[in-house]
Design a protein that fits this description.
This protein has 654 residues and is of the alpha+beta class. The protein folds into 3 domains: 3-283, no CATH class; 298-399, Phosphorylase Kinase, domain 1, CATH 3.30.200; 424-651, Transferase(Phosphotransferase) domain 1 (Transferase(Phosphotransferase), domain 1). It has helices spanning 7-26, 39-58, 87-96, 103-106, 114-124, 141-159, 164-184, 188-204, 216-232, 250-270, 278-283, 291-294, 349-368, 413-421, 430-449, 471-476, 518-521, 543-559, 563-566, 576-580, 582-588, 590-600, 602-613, 615-618, 631-651; strands spanning 62-65, 68-71, 77-80, 133-136, 303-310, 321-326, 329-337, 375-383, 390-399, 411-412, 452-453, 462-464, 495-496, 503-504. It starts with 6 loop residues before the first helix and ends with a helix. Residues 278-654 form the Protein kinase domain. GO terms for molecular function: ATP binding; protein kinase activity.
Length: 654
């Protein structure tokens, strides 16, 4: 296959994954008894699968002409005899030696459906016409596009045979498959192929208009007849069917999600390196030049700080936020301080590169909205306008969500927990708290799918916007109304903040030691607390440490109290040895997790415990040395996290 069209084999593989996912959901087996499809639709299913088989078997060798198949004079694909089929076979094999189609290519995709596929191949091998070995004789892009379009349409139609519950399971399984695909592909060229394949799949997908009818069964069978007739028509109809395509369905959304994840990981993998070329930037849709994606510095003179800066702990420059205006818009800023160089007072050029790279990634997320991060506009270096002196900090500028008053300030989860303890706010319902837990788990799953580590996950960095709440009033206790006040916050729409020290798991150039802080160490795994995280060891931060931090946050959410109060720790007097024992206390002191179990149920208890335990809870035989930088190991961890955390929370009804 020509290099410029290799993305098309990714499309073919993705359609195979879709079919295997569908087969797993409905319980495909050799006997109909296990099939989760209504009896009235089994005939339709048989016809659709039969058409699919015929199209695949005839592709490149036969063509539909005058209502019957005729062999092509110049076939695209030829069947190779086995190596053991005599001298002729050995000679052909010796000359051409077409190995199994790119073994490395197979490892780039999930193996979860391999069991079902193996059973299918074993059954198919019993047929005399089963082709042993195939190779390309020539390549025809248009004909291959037509094949892909038909296969995609077949898969789309099969989805319509599912009931609501099965469709929900299929969507979740497809999403998990996409995450695994992204996890298993680290090379930039492979990620570009996935992006191009997903974009092409979106444009090729064909669905049909639904006619109004009171009988769903009649509708399905009508569509089946139309669908099968269309599938059997000449390939010349391919172009004319474009008007019927639906770009708003779940299949299109799925293709776009995979494209955005591949695009983001490609940028993340190459940002700040020579691998991010103009050609690659263009192929990923960033613009004609690298400059289009890396130009993220703003003019400091366009930014005006409004009011006083917020400082949660009264002493931490790192966590200070400020309200500001930028180009006649109300925005908010997170500060990132730096140590000036002794000889000129300027920031280290490497620090500048890191900030610019991180902001470029945050801006890309703003375009695709994958990771529940607020919309990032860029960064600036803070310099006193009167004296010209540098304040030794960068400001990362974020735009407020749409539909929110320009004067509304972000309020974080820690402020809500403290306000509830002070009797100012009501404790949210268990339903709202579980919903928040689910959204946070899903956001972390997406981050880790592209190897992006947060490194600062804590309640202070989980933000909400509500026009009725001012964080300054919460801290001062100057909130109007009769206490405790009922919260009107939508807990399904949090934003993750504090990305300034996050980095791709493989890119150590974007790593910087986190600030030493007792309050922050409460959420950090013991292996990266305090000085341990700054002794040349920061690059070893693992996904398991983010998952542990999520576990601590989930304990806070279920108690609806700050973790230091749950553990009765006085942060002003706490010693490092006290903080090091936090994980052990959470797991070993039965009263803590017993409280979670008694007040939220077995499922939430199991989820929290799994997060605190780490890889051992997700992957059989894993321990503290589990290497999640290895793509295969990372994919296993991703699967385990999905099964034991994300899916459990999704299925939970409170």
């Amino acid at each position: 296959m020509p290099k410029e069209h290799k993305y098309m084999r990714v499309q073919l593989k993705k359609e195979q994954c879709r079919l295997l996912d569908w087969g797993s959901v409905v319980g495909v087996a050799q006997h109909d008894e296990t099939l989760g499809i209504s009896s009235s639709n089994k005939g339709v299913l048989h016809d659709v699968l039969d058409q699919q088989q015929q199209i695949l078997a005839s592709f490149g060798k036969y063509e539909k002409r005058y209502k019957r198949f005729e062999r092509l004079e110049e076939p695209l694909i030829i069947e190779m005899p086995d190596e053991g089929d005599g001298a002729e076979g050995a000679m052909i094999s010796g000359l051409l030696a077409p190995r199994r189609a790119d073994t490395d290519f197979q490892t780039r995709f999930p193996q979860e459906g391999e069991t079902l596929m193996k059973e299918c191949l074993e059954w198919a091998a019993q047929a005399r016409t089963y082709p042993r070995r195939l190779r390309w004789a020539s390549f025809d892009k248009d004909k291959f596009e037509q094949l892909l379009s038909k296969l995609a349409s077949f898969n789309d139609f099969l989805g319509e045979l599912l009931d609501k519950q099965q469709m929900s399971r299929l969507i979740a399984r497809t999403e998990r498959t996409d995450f695994q695909i992204i996890q298993l592909n680290d090379k930039i060229d492979h990620l570009v192929e996935i992006f191009q394949a997903s974009q092409a799949s979106s444009s090729l997908r064909h669905t049909y208009a639904i006619l109004g009818t009171s009988n769903p069964s009649d509708l399905l069978h009508w569509r089946a007849r139309e669908f099968l007739q269309d599938a059997a028509m000449s390939s010349n109809t391919h172009a004319s069917s474009a008007e019927g395509r639906d770009r708003d369905g779940p299949e299109h959304a799925n293709a776009q999600t995979l494209a955005e994840l591949a695009r983001f990981k490609a940028l993340e993998t190459t940002i700040g390196t020579a691998d991010l070329t103009n050609e690659r930037a263009k192929s990923l849709g960033f613009g004609d030049t690298v400059h289009a994606v890396t130009d993220v510095e703003l003019f400091a003179l366009e930014i005006q700080i409004l009011g006083r800066e917020e400082d949660e702990n009264g002493e931490n420059e790192e966590n200070r936020r400020a309200e500001a205006s930028f180009q006649e818009r109300r925005v908010w800023i997170e500060w990132k301080p730096y140590e000036p160089q002794v000889y000129d007072g300027e920031p280290d050029p490497k620090i500048v590169e890191r900030v610019a790279a991180l902001v470029a990634l945050l801006k890309e997320n703003s375009r695709s909205c994958q990771f529940r991060a607020p919309r990032c506009l860029g960064y600036f270096r803070d310099i006193d306008g009167d004296t010209g002196e540098a304040r030794c900090r960068f400001g990362i500028v974020f735009e407020k969500p749409q539909g929110i008053s320009s004067s509304t300030k972000p309020v974080n989860l820690l402020e809500l927990l403290r306000a509830t303890e002070a009797g100012i706010l009501e404790k949210p319902s268990l339903t709202a708290r579980v919903r928040l837990a689910k959204v946070l788990a899903e956001a972390l799953e997406r981050l880790h799918a592209v190897n992006w580590l947060h490194k600062g996950l804590r309640s202070e960095n989980i933000l909400f916007f509500d026009d009725a709440i001012d964080p300054e009033d919460l801290r001062s206790g100057n909130v109007a109304g009769q206490y405790p006040i009922s919260l009107g916050i939508d807990f399904s729409t949090p934003f993750l903040s504090g990305f300034d020290y996050s980095r791709p798991a493989q890119n150590e150039e974007l790593t910087e030691k986190p600030p030493e802080n007792v309050a922050y160490d409460l959420y950090r795994h013991p292996l990266v607390q305090g000085s341990r995280g700054s002794m040349g060891n920061a690059a070893n931060f693992q996904k398991a440490f983010d998952i542990y931090a999520l576990g601590v946050v989930l304990v806070e959410i279920m108690y609806w109290q700050p973790i230091e109060h749950i553990l009765e720790i006085d942060l002003r007097k706490a010693r490092p040895s006290t903080i090091l024992r936090v994980r052990g206390r959470l797991l070993d002191e039965r009263k803590i997790l017993a409280h979670v179990k008694a007040n939220t149920g077995d499922t939430v208890h199991a989820v929290v415990t799994a997060c605190l335990r780490g890889p051992a809870a997700f992957v059989h035989g894993a321990d503290e040395t589990y290497d999640d930088k290895n793509p295969i190991q990372a994919a296993k961890l991703q699967i385990g996290f999905n099964e034991h955390v994300v899916e459990r929370l999704r299925r939970l009804n409170v």
